[in-house]
Known about the structure:
By secondary structure, the protein is α+β, with helices and mostly antiparallel strands. Helix content is 40%, strand content 17%.
Amino acid sequence: MADESTRRAVSKIPLLKTHAGPRDRALWPQRLKEEYQALIRSVEQNKEADNDWFRLESNADGTRWTGKCWFIHELLRYEFLLEFDIPVTYPVTAPEVAVPELDGKTAKMYRGGKICLTEHFAPLWSRNAPRFGLAHLMALGLGPWLAVEVPDLISKGLLVHKEQQREAAAE
């Protein structure tokens, strides 16, 4: 069961209506339009709540997505590149988000920097497919993963802020 703040945040993200994946040439453009609208709405809501934490863009056909995400910890901003491909079975199957620069630093990650979402997010996605989209993936998948993993990696010394790295190198 999700907590109340999670339910409130998710209820503000528009649900998608078109059940189509990249192989469905006729309906995929409509689904992609809905994805963009939900992502734009999600980013707007995040900015209004002073919680802006990611940027995404796709290739021309909407099957490859790249961007940046960031996490603020003890007033320091940790920024990461992210990437994912839309699976051919989308929207039944959620995309696998990769944060390549964290590859091998945590057990909650697969080879290639793909974050582990199987325990908590995958069941939620499967119950809500095809209404969930990329905005939901970010809000309920990557966001909570970063909130747990980044502070843990910092406390273990596996993740060091860029300014601290520069200071250490200068000494």
